[in-house]
Amino acid sequence: MKNFTYQWCENLFLIHIQLNNKLKAQDEVKLLRFFDGKTTKTEVISIKSTMDSYRFIVSRSHPQEKGFSIEYNDEMILDAFKIDDRAYYPTESFYSE
């Protein structure tokens, strides 16, 4: 399993995530949210086998949320983009693996 972790900063509240599913196999990724260093909420995101690319937006769920982590299959490639919250448009890629 691979892991992507992001710590929220004061002026950024949205991250655009793109997962490339090279095997086109049905899979799941876990989104874990951190509050004061503790995981308090886990979400499971299902990836369909017919999709080779899957996109979603992660937003800060609470003012006290410190960051999040995404656990995903070794065969997937994750790209993360910062989003200009006024336009909801990915503006800057800052992670790819």
Quick tags:
single chain, about 100 residues, mainly beta, Hypothetical Protein Tm1070, Chain: A, 4-stranded antiparallel beta sheet
Q: How would you describe the overall organization of this protein?
A:
The chain is mostly beta strands. It has a single domain, classed as Hypothetical Protein Tm1070, Chain: A, CATH 2.60.290. The chain has a four-stranded antiparallel beta sheet with strand order 1-6-3-4, with no helix packed on it. Strand 7 and strand 8 form a beta hairpin. The radius of gyration is 13 Å and the shape is globular.
Q: What's a concise summary of this model?
A:
This protein is mainly β.
What is the fold named in CATH at topology level?
A: Hypothetical Protein Tm1070, Chain: A
Could you say what the CATH architecture is? Sandwich
Number of strand elements: 8
Order of helices and strands: EEEEEEEE
Can you lay out the helices and strands and say which pair or pack?
Layout: E1 2-7, E2 14-21, E3 27-35, E4 38-47, E5 53-59, E6 65-72, E7 76-84, E8 89-96
Antiparallel strand pairs: 1-6, 2-5, 2-7, 3-4, 3-6, 7-8
